[in-house]
Each structure stands twice: as structure tokens, then as C-alpha cells.
Write a structure and sequence with these properties.
Number of helices: 2
Strand order of the largest sheet: 1-2-4-6
Distance between the termini: 49 Å
Structural class: alpha/beta
Number of domains: 1
Largest sheet: 4 strands, parallel
């Protein structure tokens, strides 16, 4: 009986790994000039990508962003997190400048949500 419990526990834990493994930090900064792939501050997206991934944290630098409707389909209760980068909390330091974290980030034209489970932090 104990062996069955261990196997069951391991199976449940293993089934949860893909959800955690896919979560990533993504970086967004108006005026970024790198590869525009969001992998770090040097290669930040210049705007939030059109498709957002649940479980990811999107760090946004100070600056102005276009208004948008957030509509990424729900996946259980997994949120998409949009987080204002700060000097103290900005994910990777690759390509980081403290200037990205000291000003405001704003969305011109407003924002709206058509799906649940969004976290705006900052």
C-alpha cells in the first residue's frame, strides 16, 4: 500500500511540472532596440505581445503603452501577471537600467478585460 501511495504521489507531482516549467519572465520596454523577443531588458518587446501566456510574468518598464483589451483565454485559475518593473524587482539584470524602474507605466486609451485571472502589480 505504501508503494502505491508513493507512485501515485509522484505521478501527480510529475503531471504538474509542465504548468510550472512553462512559466517565464518576459520584458517589455518602449524604445527597446534589441531582438524584440522579451528574453531580457536588452531584447525587450517594445509593447506587450499580442498573445500573452498564462503563468508568465510580463515586466513592463516606465513609459507609455497603447490601450488594449486583455482577452487571453482562461486556463484553470492560472493568471497572467503584468508587473511594473522597479529598481528592487525587475527580474533579470541583463540589460537593466534603473531608469526603467523609476517612472510610471501608463496605458493610453484605457484597458479592458474579457477573460478572468489577471494580476496587475504596480
Amino acid at each position: 500500500m505504501t508503494t502505491k501511495r508513493i507512485v501515485l504521489t509522484l505521478a501527480v507531482a510529475a503531471s504538474m511540472l509542465p504548468a510550472f516549467a512553462s512559466a517565464a519572465n518576459v520584458y517589455v520596454r518602449p524604445g527597446a532596440t534589441g531582438a524584440n523577443n522579451g528574453s531580457d531588458w536588452a531584447n525587450a518587446y517594445t509593447a506587450l505581445p499580442s498573445t500573452l501566456v498564462r503563468g508568465n510574468v510580463y515586466y513592463i518598464a516606465a513609459g507609455s503603452y497603447a490601450g488594449r483589451t486583455f482577452s487571453t483565454a482562461a486556463s484553470g485559475t492560472t493568471p497572467v501577471t503584468i508587473k511594473k518593473a522597479t529598481v528592487a524587482d525587475h527580474g533579470t539584470s541583463t540589460g537593466w537600467s534603473d531608469a526603467y524602474g523609476t517612472g510610471q507605466a501608463s496605458f493610453t486609451g484605457g484597458i479592458s478585460f474579457t477573460t478572468p485571472y489577471w494580476v496587475f502589480d504596480g
